[in-house]
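Ticket opened by: R.M.
Priority: normal
Category: complex prediction / small molecule

The reporter submitted a protein together with protoporphyrin IX containing FE and asked that the result be attached to this ticket for the collaborator who will pick it up next week. Submitted input follows.
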Amino acid sequence: MSDLIEGYLGKTVEGRKSRLPAKLDYLQSATGLFLALFMWAHMLLVSSILISEDFMYTVTKLLEASFIFEGGNPLLVTIAAAVIFVVFIAHAGLGMRKLPGNFKQYQVMKAHAKHMNHDDTKLWFTQAGTGFAMFFLGSVHLYIIMTNSADIGPYASADRIWSEWMWPLYILLLLAVELHGTIGLYRLCVKWGWFDGDNPRENRVKLKKVKWGLTVFFLVLGFASLAAYMKIGIDQVNNNNVGNKYQPTAKVMEYKMPNKTIGGIA
Ligand code: HEM
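Result attached by the on-call engineer:
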């Protein structure tokens, strides 16, 4: 009954407003922080290809817990991707609350941003646009990784990127995720006053410089990694080797123990 009254009048019989929007805001911040930090780790792991094919192979096997399961178990990657997918969907659902619901709302927001000529307000539009794009781009990637976790590695990933045409999607996803992630982290810092210090105005300027530095760093790293996978993918086609899995060179050995095998680097 109380819900019904609040639904009609906007407040309860006691005159209180729901705390749910504040709780949802908090959840949106928490899921966003988790996803942004996950993406930093993700980009560093994916960029292991820039060191060598063997190194990327070793990283892949470590994430499949090759130190517990002989040869690694891709099911662990499927589970991790499923968990990330759930957080990703929850974050997107919470974010939808902030998008303008009709043209009039959009017009009001646009006019407001133009009138204020305030950089942070303009950043909001980038955040909303990249978030919307990721609904589609991120879902495709997560579903494919979740259902093909056994096909991750220097050759399998390169084949997916080049021969299976994932590179155009990755270019768009990379741009969206790097802009969205760093703008999101910056907005979290401002919203919760994490680095306000004694002079919030001055610190905000510094924070924005750090934000741009991180965006550029992860974009350069991401595009360099993508180029490396594309080059391997093209070589795979030229060598008639598409679909074949990478075989580690002698540098990556298997340590034999009496009753189990553990993968490692010599
Ligand atoms: C546990 C979850 C995830 C796993 C296991 C995973 C795994 C991978 C792997 C193995 C690659 C290399 C290319 C390939 O094999 O297809 C890749 C690339 C990429 N992933 Fe993910 N990913 C995950 C979540 C995400 C999320 C949530 C996003 C963003 C919404 C994302 C964005 C990207 C982008 C942009 C690339 C291309 C990066 C580049 O080439 O530099 N990934 N991912």
